[in-house]
C-alpha cells in the first residue's frame, strides 16, 4: 500500500499544472501579505501619514505602551488621561448646530437613551487633537462598548429583542434577514454572552487579526482552487489517458489503488495546507510580531458583538481548524466529480462552480437559504465570518452552534462522497 | 486450469456487440480473428471484468470471476487495443508502478521490471519519459506491463500494432515460450502473428462465435474454395471486381492471382490448399457464414 500511495502522490505532484498552481499560490500568498502591509496606515503625532512597516511599528509602540488587562483601575486611569486631553480648553472648539443634530439622530439609532442624548457635549475636539493625542485611546471604546454592548445584548435577548444585534451590523451584513430564535437558542446565546470575559487583555493584536482574515480568505479563494486543479485529474485522467483499461484488471485495481488515490489526495491537501499556513504565519509573525495572542476578539470592531469567548490565538486556531476542514470537504467533492468525469478540464470547471457559486450572499433574501449555503466548503473556509455572531442549527431537536454544524456536515458529506468515489471507480466500465 | 465463457452477451441499446458467445479455454495460445466491429475488444473487456456483460458469465475453474475478484485479477494480464500511459513517467517507473498495482513486492518488482525491459528491448531507454517513445516502443512497454505478474491468463488486443517485422517476430517467439501452461488470447488482424503459434483459432463475426479449431482444422472448412490462376492483364479487373483476390503478382505480361471463390473463377484455375489469411478473407470479405 505504501508504494501505491507513493506513486499516486508522485502522479499528483509530478503534473506540470500542480507545480504551476503551487508556485502561483505562493506568489499570491506573498502578494496578499504585501498588500496587507502596504495598506497599513497611521498618523503619527506630527500628523504625518505613515505607511506600511512604519505604520505597523508605530502602532506596535503605541499599543504596547497601553497593554494590560482592562480592569476597572486600568480603565479609570486611561479614562482620566483621555478626559484630561478632551477637557483641555486649548483642544476644544464649538460643534456646528447641523452637526449636533445629526449626531443625536445617530445616537438614537444605535440605542442610546434620551438622557444620554441630551447630555451630549456641544464642544468638540479640534481635528488634529484626535490624531495627535487621542487616537491611541480608541480601544477604550471596546471596554465602554463592553460595559454597554454586551449587557445591552443580554438585556435585548431577555426581552426578545434579538433583531437589535442585527440592526447594529454594518456594510453588507446590515441587510441580512433577521432570524427568529426558539427559546432554546435564545437561552444558549444568553449563556454564551454571559460567559464572555469582562476584563479584556489589550495588546497589539493586529498581526493575529490580519493573519486570520488573510489566511481564511486565501484558503477559500486561492488554496481551494489549487486543490481543485491538482485533484481533478486523480480519477478523470485515468479515463482520458485510457490507463483505466490496464489499471482496473490488476490485482489492486479495484480496491487498494482507489484507497491509495484517496489517501494520497488527503496527504497532498494536508501538506499544501500546512505549507501555506507556515508561510503565512512566518510572514505575519516576522512583520507584525506575535504579541496580542491573548487579547480578546471583542476588541476588534468586527467581533464586538461576538458571543464567543475567544482570544486572537483561539480565533486563529479555530480558523485554522475550520478552514482545513472546509478544504478537505472541497477535496472530497473534487475527487467525487473526478471519479464521474471523463476529462480533467471539465472536472475542474464543475468543481470550481461548486466551490465559488455558494459565495453568493443570500442573507438578504432568506435566512434559511443563508444558513444552508453557509455549510458549503467555501463558507466553512471563510472561517472568520463565523465568529461575528452566534448562529445555531437545529438538528433533529439538538442545537448546534454554526462551527459545530459545519464540522458535522463536512465530515458526514465527505464520508458519503468518499464512499461514492470508491464505488464509482470500482464499477467504472471501460 | 479452465476459462469458461458461458453465453456471454453485450448489448448497447438495440445494438448487439457480443451475442451469446460460449467457449471453454484450456492452457494454450488462442488467436481471436475477426473484422473491425466483430466484438473482439468487447469480449476481451468482459473477460477482464472491466466491462459488465448484459447476460452470461465468465468462469475461472468453475467460479464466476466476479466472485473471485482480486484473486482472478491476480492471475490476469491485459494489453488493450489503445494502450494508455502516463507521458511524464519513465519506462522503469511505469513498470514499477504497475508492479505495485499487481501486488509484487518491491524487490521482485524491480527484478521483473528490469527483466521485461530487457526482453522487450527497452533497457537502454528505461530512464526516458514515455512521451518520447515511438509507437512501437510504447506498444512494447504495454506488452511488458501485461506480463509483470506472470499471468496465468494473458489477454492481448492487437499487441503487434505499431511493431516492425523484426519486433513482431520477437513478440511471436516471446508468446510461444510464455504460452506453456497458460491461457493466452491474442486478437489480431495480422494473420501471420497467430498462424504459426496459435494452438487454436477462434473466428468471431457480428459478436458470435463463427468457427474454432487449430489452423489445419479451420482452414479445412474452406478447402476447395481457394484457387490459383494465371491470366492476361486485361482479365484482372473483371476478376478483381467479381471475386475476393487475396494475392496478385505480375509475371511477365501475365498476372498470377490467388482467388477465394465458391466455384472455379476462370479457365485454368486450380485449387490450392487454403491458409489462414484465405480463411479471414473468406469470412470477412463478403464470404458466406458457415
From TrEMBL, chain A:
The chain crosses the membrane at residues 12-35, 215-236, 257-290, 310-338, 345-369, 399-418. The keyword Transmembrane applies. It comes from Viridibacillus soli. This is ABC transporter permease. Keywords: Membrane, Transmembrane, Transmembrane helix. It comes from the Bacteria.
Automatic annotation (TrEMBL), chain B:
This is ABC transporter ATP-binding protein. Keywords: ATP-binding, Nucleotide-binding, Transport. PANTHER family: ABC TRANSPORTER, ATP-BINDING PROTEIN. InterPro entries: AAA+_ATPase, ABC_transporter-like_ATP-bd, ABC_transporter-like_CS, P-loop_NTPase. It comes from Viridibacillus soli. GO terms for molecular function: ATP binding. The keyword Aminoacyl-tRNA synthetase does not apply. SUPFAM superfamilies: P-loop containing nucleoside triphosphate hydrolases (SSF52540). Belongs to the ABC transporter superfamily. Transmembrane segments: none annotated.
